[in-house]
Structure of HTH luxR-type domain-containing protein:
Amino acid sequence: MSPPARTRGSEPEAGPGPSPARPPVSRGARDLRGLTGPERETLKLVGLGLSNQEICARLHISMPTTKTHIGRLLAKLGARDRAQLVIVAYENGLVG
């Protein structure tokens, strides 16, 4: 006996799959209460489109410190990249 024939669209739907490592960013404003003051200021400057070098000059901090702030922002906010940090800055009214 042969198995029943399948037609297009009759296959079982796939489940949601593995959950992402980080939650999606653009689901409304993020809670920024866990950020330090320098991290919040860095987020604002990223939201304004400043480069790392420009952030260093504006905040009078070193490049490694700037990169540390950005790395911590990515982790704390569940952002995938700098573009998502810009979205978070706008959604939270840091820039606009």
